[in-house]
Design goal:
The complex is a heterodimer of chains A (504) and B (519).
Chain A: H1 3-18, H2 25-49, E1 58-66, E2 71-77, H3 81-98, H4 106-125, H5 129-138, H6 140-150, H7 155-183, H8 201-218, H9 227-234, H10 237-262, H11 264-290, H12 295-316, H13 319-350, H14 369-382, H15 389-402, H16 406-431, H17 459-473, H18 476-490, H19 492-499
Antiparallel strand pairs in A: 1-2
Chain B: H1 9-17, H2 22-28, H3 34-51, H4 54-79, H5 96-123, H6 127-146, H7 150-168, H8 175-206, H9 212-221, H10 225-241, H11 250-257, H12 260-283, H13 290-312, H14 318-339, H15 342-373, H16 384-387, H17 389-403, H18 409-423, H19 427-453, H20 461-464, H21 476-493, H22 498-509, H23 512-518
Helix pairs in contact in B: 3-4, 3-6, 4-5, 4-6, 5-6, 5-12, 5-15, 5-21, 5-22, 6-7, 6-12, 7-8, 7-12, 8-9, 8-10, 8-11, 10-12, 11-14, 12-14, 12-15, 13-14, 13-19, 14-15, 14-18, 14-19, 15-17, 15-18, 15-21, 15-22, 17-19, 17-21, 18-19
Classes of the chains: A mainly alpha (504), B mainly alpha (519).
């Protein structure tokens, strides 16, 4: 059942590469879309089979792989991973749909897209630490290729930077996993939380630290974030969608599943510092976003800020805040994908993303009215206006964390306010006012007339907008799906304390 | 042509003369070297065929070599888990360790030969002679894997070394090849002399014995400074053979100057024999000096990993880059040696087997590229994906595997080494290994970037003038077969590597000296 989510993209990628004869871009794209639709349908089928009232892992599959290494092919899904699997399936589909301008080597491009999607599924579903690591590393080279072959002018630099950062993150994670499995003497690499009786607090903190830095690079958290704006600026729009919407979630998922899930006691010790780190990350990301002149970099920095909320929520580790973290992961995935799509649309039509030259794109006749309207909805959602997905997730995060870490939460709230500032700047500059796509001259002539964007190209953006609003208006569905898992996770420390016979 | 069980004349003689004293014939156990006998017969037949002229040689030498090495591999498989009686009065032992490493050596020769034919043809050198020398080197390396007596170790070591000098200077009209041979000869002879000196010290310490079991029992009790000296000398020889820093200086020059197929053999076969020797001497004999040699090897491993991988970053020649990368890879394998646990030894064996396929796969690609273009510069690979997808795919996957990227074979080998190292609390080695792995990914990926990422207009002149791909020339079909075999093993072998793990573990389980060391 779950293996099909790996088999569809991997075998599909292999098939695309090995298909004999010439394939035009349109054919390859259609084939990839068909495969991704199948993957999405299968993920939705998973949703029907999933029983939200049960907190544990479901639909488990397990095949022994390499016993002397403790590597086991073991998959399972719970309320934490299921929404992310759905987001992955949906956003890869969006990304493939938006890939209409891949003129060179379309086969390789779509095959890599499929491999990434499969690897991300594998990482979300794996219940064995080494298996997770395998999938985590597997996505590295395809994404490097996607940036370095189909990227912008400085793509080589950005891709290599991404590669080195992620490779270091992989090394740290592997070291921590090896350390955990071997120090506790049970080299089975299962997801069993470690107790202080088995492992001293000092060692736990060291291992947790390695994992935190490893995932902190991926999320990314300040100060390990510098690869992200470069990678986003140089990547093409579909790759940015994938990177922001799906791949960053690997980091936050790792944070919840492995940092919090494996080291609940050490986590409790480190939590106050983590909350401060989260607040710093949120504020730095937001302030840096204000200073940007490139729309894509601005959205990229907003990701840095918004991913900080997840760390804050995880640090607080209350049932409400963890549910908020899950909401934030899903809604950030959808919203950032939406924003990157729209920025890509503006860039494709005007040839620039510079905030200093773009003006008045909302012009109903000669501008990009639909893009502009969707963008306004997107930034409203991102800034957390009520009725949108962003509001629900931020509200839950802040509500859940306020009692535990009032100062850090208040600082993050300021960061949330700053989101409104930089996105208003963006919308105000780019979409309002008199239409212009060149630096304004006093009394200069009217700027060009922009070609209208066909409605089909806006289809993914409109679907994403609808989803964002739908989650905002009716959050109970997603909440119902994840509540058991996140509540169970928040009770880890208490449960463990009860097991080890100490007062919580 | 050759039947299992038929012995070479010399051995058969000694068996028949020993018939009068049944005790002696039992002690000989000549069947232990049956695989070597197969290689030897192939070698002699090659020389004979070579007398019939170049035409007959190029027709018959390749099948003869395949038959000899294939038979050797089959015989090795039959020896697996067999009776482990010391052969030839204790100078050879066919335990599973010896069998596994001899199999790696024989397989590496087989693959190197497949890569060689076209190269030899193109350079206009005699085929029969070349094959005979390479088989002689193989013979030495195989004997070295199972040698358990100082004398047999030295003889097999020299057989391997002398043949290697000859091979590296085989392109005699090429000045770089001659330079490589001379360098190799000088440094190698010095290493051999050092080994002899160390062996003579051990001979004195045992009071006149040369067998490794005697040496081991003598070392149990003696702790004189002379013993430490002997250890250092022996260790230097081993380090020279596996090209560990700081005994590596010959590697880049020899790799760059020697004929590429020879380098392929030296980087895998010769190195495997070196590791087998290291296990026999250090684990088998110097057990009471465990702490000392492990410390020395930790230093060597750290230096090899750091220097090999860092200097590889700066290389512009593909062969030099692979030379430094092989130094780094040897450093990774040493982690397993230093651990001295069951997992550590098994990881060594596994990694050598993985290294066989991924490194020879990479060499197959660069040989093919240089046959088609005559170039060896990394920059000349720019834009290759358009002209030659097979080389691009093969080299990319093999290099990714060397860098330890999943799901390639190298990933599983490397993770097993790190796993074993961490389990044995070798934190320094594992951390250095992880960091240098990241470094190695960088230079492996730069080659891939050259080939895959560069657009057609950025392609190098060499690639722009790339010849039409054809497999019709003599000797190209075997090359393609070797390339595809290595490629498949590297790409699919990782996911299906469970049998390999079982094999590596039973290698250790079937080797008394290793089981004794594990305790």
């Amino acid at each position: 059942m779950l293996s099909a989510l790996l088999a569809i993209p991997f075998l599909g990628a292999l098939g695309l590469m090995l298909w004999p004869g010439e394939l035009s871009l349109e054919k390859v794209r259609r084939a990839a879309l068909a495969l991704l639709l199948l993957q999405l349908a299968w993920s939705l089928r998973l949703l029907l089979l999933f029983d939200p009232s049960c907190g544990g892992m479901q639909l488990q599959e397990s095949i022994p792989w390499i016993e002397s290494l403790g590597l086991e092919y073991r998959l399972g899904v719970d309320g934490l991973s299921l929404p992310l699997v759905l987001v992955n399936a949906g956003l890869t589909l969006v990304s493939a749909y938006a890939s209409t301008t891949v003129t060179q080597r379309p086969r390789l491009y779509f095959a890599l897209l499929l491999v990434i999607s499969g690897a991300v599924n594998g990482a979300f579903l794996s219940l064995n630490l080494l298996l997770f690591f395998l999938f985590y590393e597997l996505e590295l080279i395809p994404l490097w290729l996607l940036i370095s072959v189909w990227g912008g002018a400085r793509r080589a630099y950005a891709a290599t930077k991404f590669l080195i950062f992620t490779a270091v993150s992989g090394g740290l994670i592997l070291a921590a996993f090896l350390g955990l499995a071997l120090v506790t003497g049970e080299a089975d690499f299962s997801l069993t939380p470690v107790l202080s009786g088995q492992l001293g607090m000092g060692t736990q903190l060291v291992l947790l630290g390695a994992l935190l830095v490893g995932f902190g690079i991926k999320i990314p958290l300040v100060p390990f974030h510098t690869w992200l704006p470069d990678a986003h600026t140089e990547a093409s729009t579909p790759v940015s969608v994938l990177l922001a919407g799906v791949l960053l979630k690997l980091g936050t998922y790792g944070l919840l599943r492995f940092c919090l899930g494996l080291f609940p006691e050490a986590w409790a010790v480190a939590a106050p510092w983590l909350a401060i780190w989260a607040a710093v990350s949120v504020l730095y990301g937001s302030l840096a976003a204000i200073a940007q002149r490139d729309m894509k970099r601005m959205v990229a920095y907003s990701s840095v800020g918004h991913m900080g909320y997840v760390l804050l929520a995880a640090a607080a580790a209350t049932p409400v805040s963890l549910l908020g973290a899950e909401f934030q992961m899903v809604s950030h995935g959808l919203i950032s994908a939406l924003l990157f799509l729209l920025v890509g649309e503006v860039y494709a039509t005007t040839g620039t993303r510079d905030l200093d030259v773009l003006r008045g794109l909302l012009n109903p006749e000669r501008g990009l009215p639909l893009t502009g309207s969707l963008m306004i909805v997107g930034v409203m959602a991102s800034a957390g206006l009520p009725g949108m997905a962003g509001f629900i997730s931020e509200f839950l995060v802040f509500r859940g964390s306020l009692a535990a870490f009032p100062v850090a939460t208040l600082a993050s709230m300021v960061g949330s306010g700053l989101t409104a500032v930089y996105f208003l700047l963006l919308v105000n500059r780019v979409f309002f006012g008199r239409l212009a796509v060149t630096p304004p001259e006093p009394g200069g002539p009217l700027d060009i007339r922009l070609p209208a964007v066909p409605l089909v190209r806006h289809l993914p953006a409109m679907v994403l907008t609808l989803l964002v609003v739908a989650i905002g208006l009716a959050p109970s569905g997603l909440g119902y799906l994840s509540e058991q898992a996140t509540t169970a996770m928040s009770q880890f420390p208490a449960l463990l304390a009860a097991i080890s016979g100490k007062p919580a | 042509m050759f039947l299992p069980g038929v012995l070479p004349p010399a051995v058969a003689d000694s068996v028949s003369t020993a018939a009068f004293s049944p005790g002696l014939s039992l002690q000989l156990h000549a069947g232990a070297i049956a695989p070597e006998a197969a290689v030897l017969i192939a070698l002699l037949t090659c020389l004979l065929v070579d007398l019939a002229g170049e035409k007959a040689a190029s027709r018959w030498v390749p099948p003869l070599c395949y038959a000899g090495l294939g038979t050797a591999l089959v015989l090795l498989a039959l020896q697996w888990d067999g009776p482990q009686d010391p052969a030839f009065l204790g100078s050879f032992l066919a335990d599973n360790l010896a069998i596994a490493f001899r199999a790696v050596v024989a397989a590496s020769t087989l693959l190197s030969l497949l890569l060689s034919w076209r190269y030899v043809e193109q350079s206009g050198t005699p085929v029969g002679e070349y094959a005979a020398i390479l088989l002689a080197a193989t013979l030495g390396a195989m004997f070295l894997c199972g040698a358990t007596d100082l004398v047999s170790i030295f003889i097999s070591l020299e057989t391997l070394s002398v043949s290697s000098y000859l091979l590296s200077g085989y392109m005699k009209r090429d000045a770089r090849s001659s330079e490589a041979a001379l360098k190799y000869l000088l440094v190698g002879s010095a290493a051999a002399a050092v080994f002899l000196y160390g062996a003579s010290l051990l001979y004195g310490l045992t009071g006149g014995g040369t067998s490794l079991t005697e040496v081991a029992s003598a070392l149990q009790t003696s702790a004189s400074p002379v013993t430490a000296l002997a250890l250092v000398f022996v260790l230097a020889t081993v380090a020279f053979k596996i090209a560990a820093v700081p005994f590596h200086q010959w590697t880049p020059d020899v790799y760059e100057g020697s004929p590429t197929p020879v380098v392929a053999f030296l980087s895998v076969g010769s190195k495997a024999a070196g590791f087998a020797l290291a296990l026999r001497l250090l684990v088998g004999c110097f057990e009471s000096f465990d702490a000392q040699w492990k410390l020395l090897f930790t230093v060597l491993a750290v230096l090899s990993m750091v220097l090999g991988n860092v200097v590889a970053l700066a290389q512009t020649s593909m062969k030099r880059m692979l030379a430094y990368s092989s130094i780094g890879q040897a450093g990774f394998v040493m982690i397993g040696l230093v651990c001295g646990t069951e997992d550590g030894f098994a990881a060594m064996v596994l990694y050598m087997a993985a290294y066989l396929f991924m490194n020879l796969g990479a060499f197959a690609c660069i040989i093919l590229f240089s046959l088609r273009t005559g170039s060896d510069r990394i920059a000349d690979y720019a834009g290759l994906y358009q002209k030659d997808p097979l080389i691009t795919l093969g080299l990319s996957l093999c290099l990714l595997s060397l860098g330890g990227i999943p799901p390639m074979l190298g990933f599983f080998g490397k993770i097993y080494l790190f796993f074993a190292g961490w389990a044995d609390h070798q934190y320094l080695l594992v951390v250095v290994g992880l960091v240098t792995s990241v470094v190695s990914i960088y230079y492996y990926i730069s080659v891939i970037k050259m080939m895959v990422v560069k657009e057609p207009q950025e392609a190098s002149d060499v690639v722009k003038a790339y010849p039409e791909i054809s497999w019709n020339l003599a000797g190209l079909q075997p090359l393609r077969a070797a390339l595809i075999t290595c490629l498949l093993a590297t790409a699919v072998g990782g996911v299906l590597s469970n049998p390999l793990f079982t094999w590596a573990n039973s290698t250790v389980a079937g080797t008394p000296i290793l089981m004794h060391a594990i305790g």
